Task: structure prediction
Amino acid sequence: MFATNLLAFFGMPGHYELLIIAFIALLLFGNRLPGVMRSLGRSVTEFKKGMQGIEEEIENAGKEIEEKTTSSASTR
Result:
């Protein structure tokens, strides 16, 4: 409740306040940011590779089901 009243009193931060906060964060964590961004990029790449693998498995399963249904239909 206190946080809501405090936020209502001060309001949302504007563009300049956000810029100042970003600058302070850059000063504090600047030396670690390249490593964090590098690992974030690697994780996104691995996620995309995983998604591509799953999509390929789904397509292959669909093709196998199609082949089974067409082969069973042609044997009748």
Remarks:
- The CA atoms of residues 2 and 8 lie 10 Å apart.
- Residues 33-75 form the longest helix (43 residues).
